[in-house]
Amino acid sequence: MEQTEVLVVGAGPAGLGVGLALKKIGAQFGILERHKVGYSFARWPAETRFITPSFNANAFNLIDLNAISPDTSPAYTLGQEHPSGKAYARYLKALARHFELPVAEGVEVVRVEAQAQEGFLVHTSDGLFQTRFLVWAVGEFQFPKYTIPGSDSGLHYGKVRSWSKVQGDKQVVLGGYESGIDAAYNLVLLGKEVMVFDPQAPWLRQEGEPSVDLAPFTYERLQRALDSKRLTLVQMAIEQIEKRRGHFLLHHAEGAIQVPHPPIVATGFGGGFEPLGSLFEMVKGQPRLTEKDESTQASGLFLAGPKVHHRGTPFCFIYKFRARFPVVVEEIGQRLGLDTTPLEVYRKRGLWADDLEACCTSRCAC
C-alpha cells in the first residue's frame, strides 16, 4: 500500500493545475491518471477548437484564459489562439514534464472508501493507496451523457474523432449548446444539411453569463452556418429515439421525423463520480460543496474541475475552475501545517476566486 499526504485523481487541466499549486507549497502528493496526460483532449474531434481564446499577455497581468498556472500560456507554447484538443494535450504534457509532476499513468481508480478517523483508501488497478486528502479532478469528456430515451443508439459528440468521417448528406443534432452548435457548424462546412433540436434554444439566450450563453466564437460560426442556408434551428424537444431497420425515428410532441443515419447526440457529459459512491452529496446531479470546494459528506475530499458549482453558477470553463485551485490547496496546506504564502502569486495574477458573492452573481451590464 502506497501512502501520501495528498492524492489527486485525474491528469487533465484540473488535476495538473492542483498539482502545480501543491508543488508550490511543498506538499507530498501524487497524481493518478487512468490513461495518459491530456487523454480526453487528444480524443476531441479533429476540427473542434477551444471557444475561449488564448493570448500570451502575461507580462501585462492578463493571464491566458486557457492556462492552468500563473506563469504559462498555451498561446506561447502552441502558437494557436483557439487550440485544438490535440494541441492542448501537448501543452498539458509539457507542463507535467517541465515541472516534474508525479503523475502515474495507466492507473484506474476503482473504488474509494473513507477511513474511520481520517483519510481515504483508494483502490486502483495498480494496488491500494492511502491518503489523508483526496482531490477528485476527473474531467467530463470521457463520460458521455444520454438524456433522451433511445439516444444511446445515436452518435454521441464524445465518440466522434473527425466530422469528415460522419456519413450522410443530412444530419440531425440533438442539443443546441456549445457542442451541438460546434457539431452543426463543422457538418455544414462539409456541405451537409443539418437540423438542430433543443427545447431551450440556447442560441436565443442572452444572460450575460458565459456558462449559460453561447460563446462569441460559437455565435460567429453559427451565423456563418446559418448564412449557408444549410442549417435549421428548431426549438423543440426530441422525446424518444427509435431505431428501426435502415432508419431512425425521432419522436416529438407533434409526431416523428425519420432520418437515415444515427442522430448526433450533444446532450452533455457526466462527472465520473461512480468510484466515490456516496462520498459526495448530490443535489440535482451536482455535488454539494463547502466554500472551500470540500465534500459535505467526507472531510478531506475536495473537487476540482468543471463540475464545481457555487450559487447556481457552474465553474465549467478552465478560466473559472482554475481560480479555485489555490482555494483548495491553501485549505489542504493549512491543515498540513505548511507555509501557503507561495500561493499568493495566484492572487496577484487574478487567479484566486474566493469571493463567491462577486464571482457567482456577476452579469455584463451591456
Task: Give structural notes.
The chain is α/β, with parallel strands linked by helices. The protein has 2 domains: 2-142 and 269-361, FAD/NAD(P)-binding domain (3-Layer(bba) Sandwich); 151-265, 3-Layer(bba) Sandwich (FAD/NAD(P)-binding domain), CATH 3.50.50.60. 23% of the residues lie in helices and 23% in strands. It has 10 helices and 19 strands. The chain has helices spanning 13-24, 39-42, 74-78, 85-98, 178-189, 216-227, 318-321, 325-336, 344-348, 356-361, and strands spanning 2-9, 29-33, 103-105, 109-114, 120-124, 127-136, 155-156, 170-174, 193-197, 231-234, 238-244, 247-252, 255-259, 264-265, 282-283, 286-287, 301-303, 309-310, 313-314. Strands 1, 2, 3, 4, 5, 6 and 17 form a 7-stranded mixed beta sheet that branches. The chain has a 5-stranded parallel beta sheet with strand order 7-14-8-9-10. β9 (193-197), α6 and β10 form a beta-alpha-beta unit. α1 packs across α8 and α5 runs parallel beside α6. The longest helix is centred in the first third of the chain and has 14 residues, at 85-98. It is globular and about 65 Å long. The chain starts with a strand and ends in a 5-residue tail after the last helix. The model has no long low-confidence stretch (mean pLDDT 95).
